[in-house]
Amino acid sequence: MRSSHFLSLFAVLLVLGLANAAPHAAAQLESSHKLESRTIGHIWSALELFLYRLTHGGQYPPGYGQAPVTSTSTTAVIPTKTSTTVAQSSAQASTTAITSSTAVPTTAISTPVTSASSTIATSTSTSSTPNPAATGLTVCSAQSLDSFPLSCSSAASTGVDTCCTESPGGHLLLTEFWNTGKDSVGPNTTWTVHGLWPDNCDGSYESYCDPARELQNVTAVIEASGDQELLGYMNALWKSNTGDDESFWEHEFNKHGTCLSTLEPKCFNNFQPQQDAVSYFRKTVATHKTLLTYETLASAGILPSLTQTYTLEQVQGALEKQHGGGVNVNCDGSVFEEVWYHYVSQGSIADGNLVPAPLVGSKSTCPSTGIKYYPKYTTIPAEQPVGSPGGGKIVDGGKVFLYAGPSTDYVAQKNYLTSTGKWYASGTPAGYTLKAVEGGSYTLTTSKGPCAVDGTTKLFSCGAEVTKGSEFVFAADGTLTLGGSGAFSAAQTPSGQNQILVYQNSDNAVKLVIVGIAQ
């Protein structure tokens, strides 16, 4: 190339280089020395551009002239539980962007918000793609709820992750009280909370599953969580008829909450002490908010009254129609005092769903007719307590004889349980002292000590070796039950001086019914 052509080309390229560099110059006026420095920089840039194009056949450098890429956000937004469907539809695109980053600061990830409702509709999506960079409350939060089987379904019978599917206590009961007379608590148009109970799929249940997690300071634990709204709701609507709400809450979590497999500490991301308990109380309250028992009954013409009575079909029918699942209607004698709503679960109790389910386990204890639904804070007529077929009264602090045989005809049987809990046919029946606990249950104690059913062997026994008594319920006909079951059995019928071991199951040759007769 001739020198004149070279210089001409240099001049043209110099001008073009300056023109191409100009868009990167500041648009604002600057001081003269800054402008001079920037102009010199542009000349050098033009010279570098000229040399690159001279040696690359006139081509521009890769990416030259493109706008610089800048980040529009430093926050990775995690989808909340209420936007599961949307989160799943955008999961692939979002995952690529986040995983290509060198790091996402922990403080830049927003904490997922759990829904206040316990009955969020299950997503219709079949996708189980994890949510992008999920850091939710539980180890299950990264997956869509429909990737987990319903508890107690055939799909949940084996091989499930018990952090994401409740097992073995996959049949859940949300229970409510209607306390009347001197035991009246809460507003006179609201059923109050009793608890959330995990039953096994056959209606039996475990209790006090983890002593290490039991609480004695529920109020302090909830205050530490900062959830004052939860505590306020509990103070208003989770009431004990003894006036000791704190002990009532402790009892419910210690007995039932510690048996929820999905609330075990290992099931939480970054578990904090008592996070399991707070999640238990939140889910119970959230579920109670969806169950307008008083309003449901009132809309069916079932209102508290000192004179009007109702049938079991009326009461249970109204509640089950509204709930969409099974409901136990329970009475003290003929006095309506408790309802149990039946559910199964999907996902964790902490951030999953409860789904209405058919009734499993014990039947309603109210009679078929003559149900009395008394108003609160009103003097009511004296009632014959539950389970007094001999005309006596089963009451707190009272005593009963426990007769046992193949039917409830205790007069014909005359075989009873001894002070150690064995089945006997001679002598005088042993007295069992009753101590009332929450929910219409009683502990039993004899002269030998407290009585319990062993969780492994199912042996019924009383004595000093029993460290914690079982909580029994007497049905309307006086039948002794435990965990919703009145099935007992023994290897043989007693005769003479033989005393026969009694088990709470139907596995042995002689099937038994145990009836409490008040002294």
CATH architecture of the largest domain: Alpha-Beta Complex
Low-confidence runs (pLDDT<50, min 5 residues)? 1-46, 60-135, 383-388
Order of helices and strands: HHHHEEHHHHHEHEEEEEHEEEEEEEEEEE
Major sheet: arrangement of strands? 17-19-8-11-12-13-14-18
CATH superfamily of the largest domain: Ribonuclease T2-like
Report the count of strand segments. 19
Q: What's the number of helices?
A: 11
Radius of gyration: 35 Å
Query: N-to-C terminal Cα separation, in Å?
Result: 125 Å
Average pLDDT works out at 77
Could you tell me the CATH topology label of the largest domain. Ribonuclease Rh, Chain A
**3D shape:** globular
Portion of residues within helices: 10-25%
Number of domains: 3
CATH class of the largest domain, anyone?
Answer: Alpha Beta
The fraction of residues in strands falls at 15-25%
Sheet with the most strands? 8 strands, antiparallel
- Class by SSE composition: alpha+beta
Write a brief structural summary.
The chain is of the alpha+beta class and 519 residues long. It is built from 11 helices and 19 strands. It folds into 3 domains: 3-55; 154-372, Ribonuclease T2-like (Ribonuclease Rh, Chain A, Alpha-Beta Complex), CATH 3.90.730.10; 399-518, Trefoil (Acidic Fibroblast Growth Factor, subunit A) (Trefoil).
